[in-house]
Write a structure and sequence with these properties.
This protein is an all-alpha fold. Helices cover 81% and strands 0% of the residues. It has 16 helices and no strands. The longest helix has 35 residues, at 119-153.
Length: 376
């Protein structure tokens, strides 16, 4: 696995231009081909070896394939030089500090659980974390690939940058908050379907961890905004302060806490960190007001609350598991959409995520399919 990471460092840096120049079709092709190579290699090794060694070997093959594909898709040919090392390092040292902090922020609770609990609890916690992160990460990561180049494009026009940030926050909140709250609400069925009945001990963890990842809706766009403004240093410091607060709390007044207690403490620290991150954005964009941030997130929050309440009233005991989870998802999505639209109308139909998506939908419905493809 370590060798694969080393090899991936030799990918052609030219492919970053796909994202920078908003060539998202090419960006998708590169990411898809790279992942498909690893997927196909893993399946081939699994059939040939009949062993779990197919996983690391497939990952290694995927890394090698990614390097090869990157040079096939972009004509740029990098060469080794130290002529701009000082200029590069002045920025990348803080990126290294930031990325290492984000890694420990995501792993520290697992290390502590590993020291305090048995293997079964550690396994349940780790699997719950993997399940909990899926809805929000799969929704927010693609948006993030669009946000950074979009923010950079209007970096010197602060009014447009502020509008782009608020719109991004509104769209991310509208999508990620119900995904996180919905997963927490149907955690029992989701764990039973994805992991099996013998992992039901992970349900309580999923209910807490899903809410933690739902908070990414508030900090995800903000992190790209601060990165656009070159505030990597303050971002790195904020992440490490979060680690310090969580770690000190875990080893002092929560020294005897069980894994669920640690998860709840992580949720509390994540709430504090998210509020602090929003404050940092306001400091860097002085014209941004707290009421403007609240104006784009209160409707998704209330609509998600209505969805959770409706799901708590839904009794489907005795239903087959696939039918139960499908019904819960459909019910939750319907209640959330209706509640969100009702709140939007009561608020006077302000410009925001709802109007943005409705405008896009109306545009697609008015345009012929061929025209839409050509525009895209």
């Amino acid at each position: 696995m370590a060798l694969g990471i080393l090899i991936s460092g030799f990918e052609n840096i030219g492919v970053v231009s796909f994202q920078k120049e908003m060539q998202f079709r090419r960006d998708f092709q590169f990411l898809f081909l790279r992942r498909f190579t690893g997927f196909a290699a893993t399946l081939a090794f699994a059939f040939a070896l009949q062993s779990y060694w197919a996983l690391p070997l497939g990952a290694l093959a995927g890394r090698i394939g990614g390097v090869t594909i990157s040079y096939g898709m972009h004509p740029f040919r990098p060469r080794f030089t130290l002529s701009r090392f000082r200029q590069f390092w002045s920025f990348s040292q803080w990126m290294l500090f930031l990325n290492s902090g984000e890694y420990f922020a995501m792993r520290l609770d697992k290390f502590l659980v590993g020291h305090r609990a048995d293997a079964a609890a550690v396994g349940a916690y780790s699997l719950a974390d993997d399940v909990s992160v899926m809805p929000t990460s799969e929704l927010l990561m693609p948006i993030g690939r669009v946000l950074f180049p979009a923010f950079v494009k209007v970096r010197d026009r602060r009014a447009e940058l502020q509008y782009a940030y608020l719109l991004a926050l509104a769209v991310q909140a509208m999508i990620a908050i119900p995904a996180a709250v919905g997963l927490a609400a149907i955690a029992h069925d989701a764990v039973a379907l994805l992991l099996g009945e013998h992992w039901m001990g992970a349900v309580a963890f999923v209910q807490v961890l899903a809410l933690i990842y739902g908070l990414n809706a508030f900090s995800h766009g903000a992190s790209y905004l601060l990165l656009t403004l070159g505030r990597v240093r303050i971002m790195a410091i904020a992440v490490w302060v979060q680690i310090l607060v969580f770690g000190l709390g875990a080893i002092t007044f929560l020294a005897d806490a069980d894994p669920l207690g640690l998860a709840r403490w992580r949720l509390a620290v994540s709430v504090i960190y998210t509020l602090a991150f929003v404050f940092l954005v306001q400091r860097e964009v002085p014209t941004l007001r707290a009421r403007e941030v609240l104006a784009v997130v209160w409707r998704p929050l209330l609509a998600a609350g209505a969805m959770a309440w409706a799901l708590s009233l839904l009794s489907l005991e005795g239903w087959p598991l696939p039918a139960s989870i499908a019904t819960r998802i459909a019910t939750g999505a319907t209640v959330y959409a209706l509640a969100l639209l009702a709140l939007w109308r009561l608020a006077g139909r302000p410009r925001g995520a709802e109007s943005y998506l409705l405008d896009k939908l109306a545009f697609l419905l008015r345009r012929p399919v061929a025209a839409v493809k050509t525009t895209d």
